[in-house]
Give the backbone structure.
Amino acid sequence: MLTNTDRRARVLVVSLGGTIASTTAQSAHGVVPQLTAQDLVDSVPGLHEVADIETLSFRQVPSGDITLDDVVALSRLIRDRLKDGVDGVVVTQGTDTIEETSFTLDVLLDGPSPIVVTGAMRNPTQASPDGPGNVLAAVKVAASPDARGLGCVVVMNDLVHAARFVRKTHTSSLATFQSPSCGPLGWVKEERVRVVLRPNHLARISLDLLKDVPRVALITCAIGDDGRTLRTLAASGYRGTVIEGFGAGHVPGVMAPDVENLVAQMPVVLCSRTGAGEVLDNTYGFVGSETDLLSRGVISGGSLDARKSRVALTVALAASVHREHAIEQFVHVRDSVV
Ligand code: ASP
């Protein structure tokens, strides 16, 4: 594909491991990540007709082993390669944590260049592995002038999803990636990338401000919870908490005082465990409702789900010297999402 200046696009493919890179090894029972970025690129027929490809193997891990420190380091690397003239970047990794890695890249990387994350649900030893097709589609998006300005996107199964909304919704289906709140931004059709929705510009948090990445807890509410986990968090070293509440943003009434005590110790963000929609602000009035929790100093996650909120709060804390600044940065990102 051609860039705005009518030369072939330069696309960097960075690999981190995951199913897409996993094959059988003598030492293990199942498949394990082993293929390099160059191996992945070599497995895709016709890829070099789309763009000039450069490769880099950055990690070789199941995606549950990727840390936010890794993603910060990856963001710095991508920023440098974009400055060197790369037009777009494809990150290949395990699908288990794509929801979080893609949103971290979205928050940290400013500028219009396409940043595309992809993976595979079927490994290369299975019938019909989806990795090569996903890499091809991802490179088409990374090379496309139409994909500029979308922020970080996830391309799987020929669909283009905004990192801020995408969720993994199924353990094994090829159609596992969905954006339940708004649908995909577009799709890949033959050689064309169709972008039919454009997200708002996301308020970024500067990579230059980042210091150590702190621990932020994610607590999902379940029926009958009494809040005892919340009492352990500060002593365990957490510097922030995201509560994934029921429905519109609720917790059992008995938990509400513990939430308030936690707010005195660290920023606490309220999200919904439903998987779509926004946390409400002022509909319900019972103890443990969204209105009650907000009045106790909890911060609304808005339309960010708990995993995306945890990313945003972690990065905001890593970029801030004091609590109020961190909350300001979190809210800035949250409010730019929709
Ligand atoms: N099942 C995962 C994948 O799709 C494994 C991982 O996330 O690394 O790649």
Observations:
- The chain is about 30% helix and 20% strand.
